[in-house]
Specification:
11 helices, binds 3,4-dihydroxyphenylalanine, alpha+beta, BirA Bifunctional Protein, domain 2, two-stranded antiparallel sheet, 7-stranded mixed β-sheet, about 40% helix, about 20% strand
Length: about 325
């Protein structure tokens, strides 16, 4: 019985000293298990006098209950602590900086192409395109360009060595899209065709061997030069502002008759913006359209030429150098 009292006295210290659940489990075995003092006394009960048994039995039971209660209390505390630890180790640290990828912007040329295209989409046009590597038929012949025309010379046009052929070239304008589109589609035609074009020009402040154009073509019944004027004046007013002055000056292009150059007055200076005209009936015949039934107008404008005065760019080379200090000004 003395040993039991000693155990009861030591138990609170042992139980509270258990730092975690496994430690508590071994303390529990030590206090209540088979080889514990309590276990030993229980096994010895049979040897006691019958009168002593209830007394000792009750004392033992009381001691065991006391120890169990203490262990259970400590277990609760340790379980809560373990749970808290788990929650803490599972926590997401949301204070870390997120990785934000650098997002580029569209190039100014692309932006201007979209600006112009949007104006014509608003008039019901659709976007068409064609290959940058063309052949002589679409680039010149179908467009009524005579054999002797100087633009066909190698001094103006970049020819491509392709198998045994001598008629493959980098398109000098977007006008071949006119012929390709008409060949593949019946009238009415209302198209806008932006794209890259190539010439043998030497790189300087106003020339580049590769630049961009936007072609326009309308073919329908009863189309006249007035439709051309109204459409292009609307375009200029949308693009450069509603008070911009516009002039149509007589010019020559093989594929239009009559032809004109459109000049726009910006900051007091007249600038040539685009070529245009009434589609030559020979072009309509070349693509299989009936020139007695249909007529049309066409125009072709330089994207860089539109962009430079509008965005204050003084040197065409700035567009192609990929200088971020320039590109970042046009987000
Ligand atoms: N293709 C011409 C050039 O590159 C521009 C042009 C003029 C296009 C008159 C046209 C047009 O469609 O009708 O200079």
């Amino acid at each position: 019985m003395k040993r039991l009292d000693a155990i009861l006295e030591a138990a609170p210290g042992l139980i509270d000293g258990a730092a975690d659940l496994p430690a508590l489990a071994s303390v529990e075995a030590e206090l209540l298990g088979k080889s514990s003092v309590v276990g030993e006394l229980r096994r010895g009960m049979g040897k006691l006098d019958p009168e002593q048994r209830p007394v000792v039995g009750a004392k033992l039971q009381e001691a065991a209950d006391q120890l169990k209660t203490q262990v259970a209390r400590r277990r609760e505390v340790l379980e809560m602590a373990a749970e808290r630890e788990l929650l803490i180790s599972d926590r997401l640290d949301l204070t870390l900086d997120a990785w934000v990828p650098t997002v580029g912007t569209r190039h100014l040329i692309t932006q201007v192409i979209e600006e112009v295209t949007d104006i014509f989409l608003g008039l019901g046009y659709v976007v068409a395109d064609g290959p940058e590597v063309e052949n002589v038929w679409y680039n010149f012949d179908a467009l009524n360009t005579p054999d002797w025309h100087p633009s066909r010379l190698e001094s103006d046009t970049l020819y491509v060595e392709y198998r045994e052929r001598d008629d493959v070239l980098m398109r000098v304008h977007t006008s071949p899209v006119q012929a390709r589109y008409m060949e593949a589609n019946d009238p009415p035609v209302y198209i806008i065709a932006p794209g890259r074009t190539f010439r043998t020009d030497t790189w300087d402040a106003t020339h580049s061997p590769s630049f961009h154009q936007i072609e326009g073509l309308v073919v329908d019944e009863h189309i006249t030069f007035s439709d051309l004027k109204g459409t292009l004046i609307h375009f200029v007013h949308e693009f450069f502002g509603p008070d911009t002055e516009v002039q149509f000056n007589p010019h020559f292009f093989p594929f239009t008759e009559p032809s004109a150059e459109l000049h726009v007055k910006l900051d007091g200076t007249w600038l040539e913006m685009l070529g245009c005209g009434v589609v030559d009936p020979d072009v309509l015949v070349n693509v299989g359209y009936d020139p007695d039934k249909y007529s049309g107008f066409a125009f072709g404008m330089g994207v860089e030429r539109l962009a430079m005065p509008k965005y204050g760019i003084k040197d065409i080379r700035r567009f192609y150098e990929n200088d971020l200090r320039v590109l970042r000004q046009f987000p």
